[in-house]
Design goal:
Layout: H1 13-28, H2 32-48, E1 62-64, E2 69-79, E3 85-94, E4 101-103, E5 108-116, H3 128-131, E6 134-140, E7 146-152, E8 160-162, E9 169-170, E10 175-179, E11 183-190, E12 194-195, E13 202-203, E14 209-212
Helix pairs in contact: 1-2
C-alpha cells in the first residue's frame, strides 16, 4: 500500500460507490426513505475508510503504534511461530469508529508474511489472539532486531488487507494494510524495548509512540 494523500482508503471505493448508486436508483424510484438509509450507510463508509495523514516521530529509536485504538493488553510472552523468543506483546483493539489503516511501527524489511485461517470471535477477547483468522508480518530492522505484527479479524471483520510482501522495505509509519470493521492488531517487541504505553491508553497509528528500541 503506497502512502497517499487521498482522504479515503482505496479499499472502500467500490463499496462507497455502489451504495451511493443504490441511493440514487432508490431516489429515482421514489423510495425516499430507503434512499436516505442507503446514502447514510455510504457516508458512514466514507467515515470508516478515512485515511488521515499522520506526523511520524523523528526519533530513530521510537516505535509507533501500528493501529488506532485502545491498548487492551500488554504482556510478556514467548512467541514460537516467528520470533521463537520472549517478547513484549502490545494488543490494540480497533472499534468500528477508529481509523482502520495499519502502519509499520519501525523502519524495517519484511522477512516473512504468513496467513493463519481461523474463527471470528470478538477481537477484544483474549482467545481471538490465537483462534481468529490473522495475518502475520515479521520485520527486521537495520540493527537486526525483529518485530512481529499480527492483524486479527473480529466478529464483523471478515477481510484482512495486507500489502506487505517478503523482501519489501517500509519506513516507520508507512501504511501497509487494514482490517475491516472492528479488529485487533498485536505488536511483538524485543524484551529490551522501553515501553511507554499502558493498558487502557488510546493510540494513533503511525503517530503515538509505544516504546523505544534499545
Amino acid at each position: 500500500m503506497k502512502d497517499s494523500k487521498i482522504p479515503v482508503a482505496r479499499e472502500g471505493y467500490l463499496l462507497i460507490i455502489v451504495l451511493a448508486l443504490i441511493a440514487l436508483l432508490l431516489t429515482l424510484a421514489g423510495m425516499i426513505y430507503s434512499a436516505i438509509f442507503s446514502l447514510a450507510i455510504s457516508l458512514f463508509m466514507i467515515y470508516f475508510f478515512r485515511n488521515p495523514e499522520r506526523e511520524i516521530p523523528e526519533d530513530e529509536r521510537a516505535v509507533v503504534a501500528p493501529a488506532d485504538g485502545k491498548v487492551i493488553r500488554i504482556e510478556k510472552v514467548r512467541e514460537e511461530n516467528y520470533l521463537k523468543a520472549e517478547a513484549h506483546k502490545v494488543s490494540i483493539f480497533m472499534s468500528v469508529f477508529n481509523v482502520h489503516i495499519n502502519r509499520i511501527p519501525f523502519s524495517a524489511r519484511v522477512l516473512e508474511v504468513g496467513y493463519h485461517p481461523g474463527r471470528f470471535f470478538v477481537a477484544s477477547l483474549d482467545k481471538a489472539s490465537i483462534s481468529n483468522e490473522r495475518q502475520s508480518i515479521l520485520l527486521e530492522t537495520g540493527e537486526n532486531k525483529r518485530l512481529l505484527l499480527n492483524q486479527i479479524a473480529g466478529v464483523v471483520a471478515r477481510r484482512i488487507v495486507c500489502h506487505a510482501r517478503k523482501g519489501d522495505y517500509f519506513k516507520k509509519g508507512q501504511r501497509f494494510g487494514m482490517v475491516r470493521f472492528g479488529s485487533r492488531v498485536e505488536l511483538f517487541l524485543p524484551l529490551e524495548t522501553e515501553l511507554t504505553v499502558r493498558e487502557g491508553d488510546r493510540v494513533k497509528g503511525g503517530q503515538s509512540i509505544v516504546g523505544y528500541l534499545r
